[in-house]
Write a structure and sequence with these properties.
single chain, 265 residues, alpha/beta, 3 domains, 13% strand, elongated
């Protein structure tokens, strides 16, 4: 089977990681374009891995370059935009789609094994993207443009805000005179155990802690400890109410349920 040749526009974290993964899988990555480069000699498939804010600009620049685009496949890797952001290229005869990895890419990322890519765009391109994902050890899920937008919101909540919650946890305990790195090292196994629970169970079943137990006294103590930190107390209560909503049907004792609600509202 002949793999399509690949060009990459944007050799940042994602572009570099995809280049390594595709080369390892046997693809010919014959051009990697950096900011300011003149586009020429595109491969069969062109991956646009620039920051989100640059995708439309790159599309316009290529569309106005005068190159022959018929038969070329342009794929952007943004989570925020649907393939329609490449409309100028489509108008020039190219096929377009998006190929977005649901992962946090770091400078050390070299593998996409078991990672999901959400894919959307021209129907004729999607089987190609599914095969590409498979060849680098990843999985794929087809989405509509609207589903893609909502999926990106969900991904930000699941990934970025998890890091924010970790920081909030550190800030609550900062006055305990425990080094921040020690605190983080102590919290990480706890966070991993919650993620491991979610690999086997749904969120309601995976939840542990005082609200899941209906432990009113512990919640009362937490609220009291945070009285002098209104910002953290508000966040604790909001998250607590959402947690209570998550397991509300499992709390059979309505008295406990209402007392927890009164504490957290």
């Amino acid at each position: 089977m002949r793999f399509p040749t690949v060009s990459i526009i944007g050799p940042g974290r994602l572009g570099s990681a995809l280049k390594s993964a595709f080369l390892k899988a046997g693809y010919d990555v014959n051009h990697v374009y950096e900011r300011g480069d003149t586009f020429s000699g595109f491969a069969d498939l062109i991956l646009v891995t620039t920051p989100d804010s640059e995708v439309r600009k790159v599309s316009s620049k290529i569309a106005s370059s005068g190159q022959e685009l018929n038969g070329k496949v342009f794929i952007h890797c943004s989570g925020a935009f649907a393939s329609s952001i490449l409309q100028e290229l489509k108008d020039r005869g190219a096929r377009t789609a998006c190929f977005h990895p649901l992962m946090s890419v770091s400078p050390e990322t070299v593998s996409f094994k078991n990672i999901y890519f959400d894919i959307e765009g021209d129907e004729s391109v999607l089987p190609l993207l599914e095969e590409m994902a498979k060849n680098i050890g990843a999985k794929s899920i087809r989405v509509s443009p609207k589903e893609k937008e909502l999926l990106h919101v969900s991904a930000v909540m699941a990934s970025n805000y998890m890091v924010t919650l970790a920081d909030l946890s550190l800030r609550i305990s900062v006055s305990a005179n425990i080094p921040e790195r020690t605190l983080m090292d102590a919290f990480l196994p706890l966070m991993r155990s919650s993620l491991e629970n979610l690999e086997r169970l749904n969120p309601t079943e995976a939840l542990t802690g005082p609200i899941a137990r209906g432990d009113i006294q512990t919640i009362q103590k937490h609220v009291k400890l945070l009285q002098n930190n209104p910002e953290m107390l508000e966040m604790y209560k909001k998250l607590g109410l959402l947690t209570l909503e998550l397991i509300s049907s499992d709390l059979k004792d309505s008295t406990i349920k209402f007392r927890l609600y009164d504490l957290l509202k």
